[in-house]
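Issue: copy button drops trailing tokens. Both records pasted manually instead:
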Amino acid sequence: MRRTLIVLWLAAAVPAFAQQPANLEPIPEPPPMPAEGAADEPEVTIVKRGEDTVTEYRLRGKLYMVKVTPPHGVPYYLIDKEGNGQMVRHDGTPELAVPMWVIKSW
């Protein structure tokens, strides 16, 4: 039994030792880091308009989303979906309405 285990262990270990690494090439240098202001991070501006808090999100200077938080109620978003400056209100509810018809009832 002990001899069988040793033979099985050696049979499993030999292929791992037999593998020789191929001729490997050195790793190329990474590209240079972008400039400090060139990163694609959004600019966030928080403004208080009346009682509402308005958060504006800009990417490369272009306004793409506005979050309006009223003092009492649920915040809503105005999103520029097509990039043409037309803001569409988004309340966070799904836009897909699943039909729920009653097919049969008893």
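Record 2 (pasted manually too):
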Amino acid sequence: MSNDEELDRVFKALANANRRAICDQLKLRPLTTGQLCTCLPELDRTTVMMHLRVLEQAGLVVPVRKGRERFNHLDAMPIAAIHERWIGPHAARAASRLLDLKSKLETEEQSVMSGKA
């Protein structure tokens, strides 16, 4: 599977508000499917399981069995890859521009202060 196909799955998974709500719950701690159903009472168990399957296929959720229970863990690596590819470079440029602006403003302030002294 290509990297673009993997990213498409991640974007598709995160496009749904219910799946984002599941991810929000799982970022706090791993939860069983039953615990997720308790956290999201507006969804029935079958719907939660369907959303978990989509999240698993996108690599965002990793299920771990412990006895009879299945704990769902959030794997944020696909989100980190998106951040690194699209957000990180823009954030770095914005931070650099803010540092330039700060430096220019401080230079102007020193110039004004020394002119009045």
